[in-house]
Design brief:
heterodimer, A: about 190 residues, Rna Polymerase Sigma Factor, Chain: A, B: about 140 residues, 2 domains
Amino acid sequence: MKMQEDNAIIALIRAGDKEAYRQLVERYQQKVFQTCMGFVHDEEDAADLSQDVFIRAYEKLSSFKGEAQFSTWLYRMTTNVAINFVRKRKFRSLFQRMDVGTSGAQIKSGEGADAHVLRTEQKKLLKQAIARLTSSQQKAFVLSHYQELSNQELADVMGLSLKAAESLLFRARARMQTTLKKMVKL
Amino acid sequence: MNCSVFEKELLAHQHKVELGLDARLHADSCLHCRLLAQSQQTLLSAVADEKLVRVPPFLSTRVMADLNNREMTVHSYRVWKPALQVAAVLLALVGGYSGSVLMDQGSAIDDFSAVLSDYFLMDEPGLSIEEGWLYSESYENE
């Protein structure tokens, strides 16, 4: 049903009704934003990245053939754009000597100092653990944990077989555990 | 339960660490495994925390405005493109003409000074010019 609705909206856009694209954006913006958060861990960056993803998706809509679900196509684009953004940021930080790993945890209204410190530490741990994954493992982890995609959906988005997607996800979790083990080593 | 089995069990927890009785007993007796379970829980809590963040309002408005701006830029470029092309050609023509005029002026000054030096500074002013004119091939051919 959702796939048919998406395809109907896409047909409208292709017919020249650009405003119809707003419906697609509103339908998927939270999911795209969440995925971006999984990669950049910063609300402002995630919002900018989401905007970038939707602009690119609109520009590349002609390449969407409608064989797969629009969401699958969109999530694949989101992960690719996000990975590229993270790579560029890492490259820039080499020259700017900015510690991007500690930014992004702003004090929420009504949040105590202790809670803020705890949340900052949590975020730091998460960033470090995700940063040690390969690009494919990062994609698998974010799509599974942030988007809560099933393994089959994950396989579709990543263009893998179900077995390969399951294996990739397992390796991502195992690698994260290894990172955590190193961190807690006594 | 040993540490290896504990770690395998921990891997199975995707969204929240909820240890079974055996695992809890092991964690009570093994500091390393207890810390590992705590750090995994911390990590999963951070994921849950980030998942709660809502998309900023007006994202769709920002996207649509950006798309319209891009189209306006392309559209205005399309409108101005022929005018810009004509202006570029005209500029090239005017520039070329001005350049040639300036060069001519420069050479004309040089010619004038050559005539002056020839006419007044030689022993028989004007003679060489007159001779040059009188015995030139063009004169003879006429």
